Amino acid sequence: MTSVPAPGPASSPMCLADLARAAEAAAPGAVWDFIEGGSGRELSLAANRAALDALYLVPRVLRDVARPDAGSRLVRSSARMPVAIAPMAYQRLLHPDGELATARAAKTAGVPFTVPMFSSVTVERVAESGAALWFQLYWLRDRGVTADLLDRAEAAGCRAVILTVDVARLGRRLRDLRNGFSLPNGVRAAHFAEERASAPRRLPDGSLDVRHYVDTFNPSVTWSDVAWLRERTRLPLVLKGILAPQDATEAVTTGADAIVVSNHGGRQLDGALPAIEALPGVREAVGDACEVLLDGGIRSGIDVLKSLARGASGVLLGRPVLHGLLAGGEDGAERALSLLRDEIDDALALVGCRHIGDTAELRLTRLPV
User: Fold this and answer.
1) pLDDT at 194
2) CA distances in angstroms from 320 to 88, 189, 210, 325, 337, listed in the order given
3) Where would I find the FMN hydroxy acid dehydrogenase domain in this sequence (predicted)?
4) 238 exposed, middle or buried (CB, 10 Å; 0-12, 13-18, 19+)?
5) In sequence order, which ranges of 27-96 are alpha helices (DSSP H)?
6) Which residues of the chain fall below pLDDT 70?
7) What range does the domain containing 94 cover?
8) DSSP assignment of 311-335, as one string?
9) Would strands 55-58 and 363-366 be described as parallel, antiparallel, or unpaired?
10) Is 264 a catalytic residue?
11) DSSP designation for 211
């Protein structure tokens, strides 16, 4: 497989779904499946959307919403809307500029960008974008490599570290297995030496050589390791991948500054609770002790407001940014964020909220089945 050539700008998308259609038309099938696929039967992938669609806002009226204000502050970073870009690996698979293009789009939109640990562009290079950067870590078997990546993120000016905690092992992603998916030449994990950065090889039966992941991720990680990380950095610490209220409470005890309620976009445990359904329990468990962000299924400004009304401080945006990148490079990613901002402003006015903080007063309901 060869890398995808840089496409031209997406033609006049009116919503994020338009960008998704343009991206699907531009992508080889295996690449599209890599972006869109989940694990197993993709129950959790579908449930993320179904759970958001099942919720309905109860708008207020006569509230003077002439100038809605979406400005927010997420994990000590200013943001023009309550959105940050989620960590997503190997973005040069979709466009030659990869993470650098996405970070530039985030800079233009005024939102934080999370540099993935498996970025195809180094954090030092991404920092040249001038965006507000967060840095993602997985817990590696080699703690020294983890510490080195943390040092590099701090030196590059990253403002927070996100530890993804729901990958003791990689979920079984059937689309990729059936496609025999592997990274093309020229796309690699830029933060690692060549021997670590290469894609997992295929076995004769077409399955992935799981030793690649066994050698990378540490399934023995516990809360004591998180406590070590907390002591190791002065950056705000965010734990991504929490669904259980008990784990949320433990995260606060261990020193987390924020939690991302997430089922990994339906790519880990198939059958895991949708993030929007787990959110109220997590928020109740931690109260105001830390920020609570939501990740999973966000496709519109209305989805953002539903998340805030259900207890989130903000959201992480994932696949729609990749759709924009694939459909139009930096311009496409910027268009995705611009569309979302316009939708948030519209939704704020129509639901009767002048400021983002007012969304905490909104009511949500479900229609009878």
Assistant:
1) 64
2) 11, 22, 29, 9, 9
3) 8-369
4) buried
5) 29-36, 43-53
6) 1-11, 194-215, 369
7) 16-366
8) T-SEEEE-HHHHHHHHHHHHHHHHH
9) antiparallel
10) yes
11) H
How would you class 135 by CB atoms within 10 Å of its CB: exposed for 0-12, middle for 13-18, buried for 19 or more?
Answer: buried
- Between strands 72-74 and 77-79, the pairing is antiparallel
Nearest to 163 by CA among 240, 247, 86: 240
Q: What share of the chain is helix, strand, coil (3-state, %, to 5)?
A: 45, 15, 40
Phi, then psi, of 316 in degrees rounded to 5: -100, 135
Q: What angle do CA 213, 216, 222 make, to 5 degrees?
A: 105
| Tokens coding 169 | 């092992």
pLDDT of residue 205: 38
In a domain, 8, yes or no: no
CA-based torsion, 31, 219, 115, 142: positive or negative: negative
Rg of the chain, C-alpha, whole Å: 19
Q: Which residues contact 229 (CB under 8 A, 6 or more apart)?
A: 137, 146, 150, 161, 163, 237
Considering the domain boundaries, does residue 2 fall inside one?
Answer: no
CB distance 350 to 294 below 8 Å: no
Q: Give backbone dihedrals phi and psi of 329, rounded to 5 degrees, phi first.
A: 60, -145
Q: What is the CATH number of the domain that holds 201?
A: 3.20.20.70
Domain count, the chain: 1
- Is 11 part of a structural domain of the chain? no
What single string gives the DSSP state of each residue in 82-127?
Answer: SEEEPP-S-GGGTSTTHHHHHHHHHHHHT--EEEPTT-SS-HHHHG
Contact 242, 262 (CB under 8 A): yes
Q: Which stretches does DSSP call E strand in the chain?
A: 55-58, 72-74, 77-79, 83-85, 113-115, 133-137, 160-164, 237-242, 258-262, 291-295, 314-317, 363-366
* Residue 4 per-residue DSSP state: P
Catalytic residue among 95, 191, 264, 323: 264
pLDDT at position 198, please?
A: 46
**Amino acid present at 346:** D
